[in-house]
Every structure is written in C-alpha cells, then in structure tokens.
Amino acid sequence: KTEQVEYGQKATAPEAPAVEGYEFKGWDVAFDNITADTTVTAQFEQNAVAADFFTFAEGADTANIVVSTEADYIYFKAGALTADALKATFDDENITITKSNGTTAVTGATAVGTTCLITSTINGASETRTIIVLGDVSGDGKVTSADYNQILNCAKGNITFTGVKQIAANVAVPSTATINSSDYNQVLNFAKGNLTKFSTAVK
Fold first, then answer.
1. Which residues touch 169 (CB under 8 Å, ≥6 apart)?
2. By the 8 A CB rule, do 64 and 198 touch?
3. pLDDT tens column, 44-55
4. Using an 8 Å Cβ cutoff, are 97 and 118 in contact?
C-alpha cells in the first residue's frame, strides 16, 4: 500500500501478509518517524518442516530391514547390504554411512556391518542410527563361522558381549540378555546357508 504522512509522523502499518510455509516476523524498517520517502518490506522466516527420517523408497525390498520404533537401531535380518544398496533403500536426500568411530566412511560395494552408523540429513536436520546385522558380532557385515564361534564362546561364558554386539548375537530373543544354544545354532545354520534370514522379532 502507499500512504502519505506528514513529516515526522507515523505511518499506519499495513496488514501483515500471509505466505504459506512462512511466519511473518515484522517489517525491515521502523515507520514511526517518517522524514523521507520510505519503502517498508515484510520479513518472513520459513516454518520448520518435520523431517521424516529413514523413509523407505518406493519399491525397496524392506522385508528383512527393520527401522526400530523403540531405539536408535536399524536391524538387518538376512545378512548385510552394501553401502550403496542400503542408501537406495531410503528416500532420504542425504545418507552417510560410517564405521562406529563416526569418521571412516563406508561406501560403494562395502558391506555395512554391526556397529556402523547411518546418518540421514533432511532440510539441515540429522538423525543417526546404529546398524545391527543379526548374527554379525565381528562387525564385517557377514555372518560366518567366526561369528558362530564367538557366540558359542559367549554362551559358554568364555567371553562377554555388551551393547549392540550382544543384540546382534542374541538372534533368538534380542530383548533378553541371555545368549544360548538357540542363538549359536541359528547363526551356524545361517553361516552354512541352511538359513536365509533370522525370524527374530525386533521393533
């Protein structure tokens, strides 16, 4: 709008404009003491957009991947995916995968193993989750006889797993802390090719 006012007087503020997706924050200059031609411009701030992290891409094979609703984990129930395959599983605009140190990148055809970190960035906001490949306690993304031996030794009390490695070892019932014959037998069968996925209930 255009308004004429006397020298040194106050102009009337126009009605605050509405712009979808933005919040009106005020005017760029004061207009309570007009002494010359003055142009006043509305100032806006974009509304925050809630980020929906780790949304599966349309058509992605998600039968054996579980994005936890209870913890900051993503579970693989049928062995690992490569970094490229995992990124393609999600719609997120920017996904990075690193080793557990958070700096060593996991890229291309490299398998994503237990303890790896996956970070999604949407509209400048980020969320990071830890990968758990069920049966993979070595962290190489594969379920092999070496994993079986470690899980067997854990069940016998010779070694102890904690954190995500304990969850990865406990393929029978990850919600309990007990590693037993059901766990190491399933891992052995997976390593031998007799089992193609773990039917573990994770959420």
1. 135, 137, 147, 150, 151, 154, 161, 179, 183, 187
2. no
3. 887 765 568 999
4. yes
Distance in angstroms (rounded) separating the CA atoms of residues 190 and 199: 11
Chain-centroid distance of CA 116 in Å reads 12
DSSP calls for 78-102: SS--BHHHHHHHB--SEEEEE-TTS
Q: What amino acid is encoded at 10 in this protein?
A: K
Task: Give me 50's structure tokens.
Answer: 């809630």
Q: Which helix (H) or strand (E) holds 161?
A: none
Whole-model pTM? 0.75
* Residue whose structure tokens are 């207009």: 31
The helix/strand/coil state of 7 is coil
| Residue pLDDT, tens place only, 104-125 | 999 999 999 999 999 998 877 8
Q: What is the CA radius of gyration of the chain?
A: 27
